[in-house]
């Protein structure tokens, strides 16, 4: 168990560096590891979201200090995301997530391509995108059933709007704190804390030290480089999800 603890902690550090810098991939990376260690999908998602309650708090605070957050975006995203997350966590046991994977993969691949295109076409500027509440609700729902997905769906869509990449990422992470906390509480009500508490602690130990460094990276990374990094990562996640879905057929 000690070996697993530090293995999970190491993945938590790496995942938080990527998540804090690009606004995504923490949940997907961490959940994949826990599944390979024998955790059930519900327990893996629960552990990741409990850990994210701490890591996103640190990351959101770091982004706030670095002035990467547009707080006008946070409220609608957070409220809708909490509601979607609670519904998703409650329905995880039904297996509905398996049917949504192909559609989510196609969406992510398209968003990644749009981000790469806008990295060279869009004009910088903070212009809040439309449809924040539906976006937050969908992001929260998919994040709960998949053990991750808020970043690729929400951060990816916000960045694809052509607005300031660092503000879109920082705002998404700030809203994610409320969403992931609600999801963790929902899972705890269904599973209890004992089934996933140890793994969550390991993820927190690994993830917390990475949060401040990632926020500083976002603060000083050029907009185009940031958008290209996000776009490539989202395309990779989309293709990976599609391959997994095909392999399960």
Describe the structure in your own words.
- By secondary structure, the protein is mostly helical.
- The protein has one domain.
- Helix content is 81%, strand content 0%.
- It is built from eleven helices and no strands.
- It has helices at residues 2-22, 26-36, 41-65, 71-91, 97-121, 132-146, 150-160, 165-191, 197-207, 211-220, 223-247.
- Helix 5 (97-121) packs parallel to helix 7 (150-160).
- The chain is globular and about 45 Å long.
- The mean pLDDT is 79.
Write a brief structural summary.
By secondary structure, this protein is an all-alpha fold.
Major sheet details: none
The count of domains is: 1
Strand content: under 5%
Question: What integer value in Å does the Rg equal?
Answer: 16 Å
Distance between the termini: 33 Å
- The number of strands is 0
- The multimeric state of the shown protein is single chain
Structural shape? globular
Secondary-structure class: mainly alpha
pLDDT under 50 segments (min length 5)? Answer: none
């Amino acid at each position: 168990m000690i070996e697993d603890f530090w293995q999970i902690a190491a993945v938590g550090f790496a995942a938080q560096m990527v998540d804090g810098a690009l606004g995504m991939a923490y949940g997907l990376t961490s959940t994949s590891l826990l599944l390979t260690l024998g955790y059930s999908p519900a327990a893996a998602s629960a552990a990741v979201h409990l850990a994210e309650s701490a890591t996103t708090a640190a990351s959101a605070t770091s982004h706030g200090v670095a002035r990467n957050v547009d707080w006008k975006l946070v409220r609608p995203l957070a409220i809708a995301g909490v509601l979607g997350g609670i519904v998703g966590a409650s329905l995880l046991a039904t297996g509905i997530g398996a049917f949504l994977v192909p559609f989510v993969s196609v969406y992510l691949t398209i968003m990644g391509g749009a981000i790469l295109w806008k990295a060279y076409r869009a004009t910088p500027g903070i212009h809040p995108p439309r449809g924040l509440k539906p976006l937050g609700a969908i992001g929260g729902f998919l994040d709960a059933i998949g053990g991750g997905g808020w970043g690729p769906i929400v951060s990816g869509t916000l960045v694809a709007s052509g607005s300031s990449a660092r503000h879109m990422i920082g705002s998404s992470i700030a809203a994610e704190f409320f969403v992931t906390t609600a999801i963790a509480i929902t899972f705890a009500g269904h599973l209890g804390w004992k089934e996933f508490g140890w793994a969550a602690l390991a993820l927190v130990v690994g993830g917390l030290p990475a949060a401040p460094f990632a926020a500083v990276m976002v603060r000083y990374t050029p907009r185009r480089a940031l958008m290209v990094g996000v776009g490539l990562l989202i395309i990779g996640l989309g293709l990976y999800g599609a391959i997994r879905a095909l392999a399960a057929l």
